[in-house]
Amino acid sequence: MLIDDSERRRRLATRHGLTDEVRPGDPAAAARCVVALHGTDPASIVLSAKARCPSLAIDDVEESLHSQRSIVRVMGMRRTIWVVPTDLVPAAVGGPGARVARTERKRLISDVEAHGLHADGERWLASAAGQVLDALADGGERSMDQIRSESPGLVGSYRNGIGKKWESEVSIGPRVLTWMWADGAIVRSGNDGSWRSARPLWSAADRWIDAGPPLESAPAWTELVTRWLARFGPGTEADIMWWLGATKGIVRTALAECGAQEVSLSDGSTGWVLANDTGPTSSTKETGDWGALLPALDPTTMGWKSRDWYMGQHAPHLVDSAGNAGPTVWWDGRIVGGWHQSEDGAVGLAFLEDVGADAASVLEAHAESLETWLGGQRVLMRFPSPLFQRSTGRPVRR
């Protein structure tokens, strides 16, 4: 069974909430459209949700994270910050979170012993974790500094890479919180700053959300692969391994457990879909001729390791050496350029191919709408496109 690139682009449009006929209604629904939102860049959380929910206000995302708690930040896939619907927390923690936590725990114990901070790293870490949970036992939120003031076990640092160009002072406190977060004991609850900055506040996970215990490893990976296939399928084993940050063995077991089905892709490779998901995309109207401006690290742009079918030859202009994609301009299921803001807040486009006058007009309207929505607030993306790292001055509209 062949699922060609045109069908993959139609699926992308409808399943990721990027066309008017399939818009999600709130940030949690937007996250479900793409399994989870990238949270490494705090601004991308809001802009990715807004790209799918045009009527969304900035405060709506904060309300979903903080008041409703319908979405939650986790340390999960690829040791990356994600924002997931609350019902996905057990899988995110039980699968990739637990994998990250095991690695972080081992390294942390080794480092504190090797640098002479504590002779018995395991005993020290157990004590430090207990102090953190005691500090958060009242159900409140605290910053790193506030937790450290109540947790003497978190005080300390060491020099890393002595004599190297990257020599630095490493505090052990944040590393303890990262391990506990990945392990599901605590959660990044709030943000003591604007929506464009990262000043995390922490809470005890069982006091912040009622998501239930983490899933066992195998069911956790299977749940994540099932959700990914439902939104991103078809995809190759390499795509799924990359997205999860998992091994080939983990992915193959999960594919078997969820009853995934093989299909052929346009480039001759083998893709996977959920059983009985080989038919053409059904739609009440033609899904072509849609446009979108997606932020850096948007889940759609970052959803596959192999991106030629929607990015073409534009990757050198839009993706950095670490694989992080900057802000992108989409037309009819393909990336056709990038966007950024000038110092005065103007949103401008740079097309990497001729999209035609009609498409350019629609995309310019998207840029004007985003500029108005931002209201003069400038978003400094952590991962700007190489395209705009080379440019200067005010972005130029076609």
> How many strand elements?
14
Shape: globular
Secondary-structure-derived class: alpha+beta
Strand order of the largest sheet: 11-12-13-14
The count of helical stretches stands at 16
Strand composition percent: 15-25%
Low-confidence stretches: 392-398
CA-CA gap between termini:
41 Å
Average pLDDT taken over every residue: 94
> What are the secondary-structure elements, in order, as H or E?
EHHEHHEEHHHEEHEEHHHHEEEHHEEEHH
Cα-atom Rg, whole angstroms?
22 Å
What does the main sheet amount to? 4 strands, antiparallel
Percentage of residues assigned to helices: 40-55%
Describe this structure in words.
The chain has helices at 5-15, 27-33, 42-52, 58-66, 89-114, 121-135, 144-150, 172-182, 205-208, 217-232, 237-244, 248-257, 308-311, 315-318, 357-374, 386-389, and strands at 2-3, 37-38, 71-75, 81-85, 157-160, 168-171, 186-191, 200-204, 261-265, 270-273, 291-294, 328-331, 334-341, 347-351. The chain has 398 residues and is α+β, with helices and mostly antiparallel strands. It has a 4-stranded antiparallel beta sheet. Strands 1-9-10 form a 3-stranded mixed beta sheet. The chain contains 16 helices and 14 strands. It has a domain at 307-389. Helix 5 packs antiparallel against helix 8 (172-182) and helix 5 (89-114) packs across helix 10. Helix content is 41%, strand content 16%.
